Amino acid sequence: xxxxxxxxxxxxxxxALAAKRGETDKSELVGAAAEMHExxxxxxxxxxxxxxxxxxxxxx
Length: 60
Description:
The chain is an all-alpha fold. It contains 3 helices and no strands.
């Protein structure tokens, strides 16, 4: 299963997950979050968004 490789990727996954669940509007997504919303399942997004942030770099 996918794990976030950076804090930015984890944040994008969280935004995509919120849109997939209907908590935010899909039209608010931009960039990586919009792509993740279209290409990943809710389970994949949930796993990526819940990755530990402790050892992640800000960006890759």
